[in-house]
Amino acid sequence: MIRIPALLLAALACWLLAMPSFASQSGLVEAKLPSGTIAGAHFQAGKRGQPAVLILHGFLQTHTFPTIVSTMDALSTAGYTVLAPTLSLGISRRNKSLPCEAVHLHALDDDVAEVAFWVRWLV
Fold first, then answer.
1. Three-class secondary structure of residue 70 per DSSP
2. C-alpha–C-alpha distance, residues 61 and 59, integer Å
3. Does an H or E element contain 27, and which?
4. 86-103 pLDDT, tens per residue?
């Protein structure tokens, strides 16, 4: 009988540890996508009761694009929880913009799946 509550407690502890801890996280976040690609984002925890905001950069840019940074700073200052991922475009730890003439090996479905991943991470 003691084994079942202990097992449930252990399972609950593992589940809680696997969840993002917004209170302790601010700054750069890395996550392994289902595709195996390592993707990055900038995260700022906001005030309780404020909605979370996901900011996406323009095509081939990153979360360090000046418009993204200033928008994130303004929303964060207003108390919103903000996540600004860099879409990987199939490149692990992508941190640079890509030129328009670069060969694109990713598909729109890959981008949609990646955005869905970050939405799930955020909520």
1. helix
2. 6
3. strand 27-32
4. 999 999 999 999 898 888
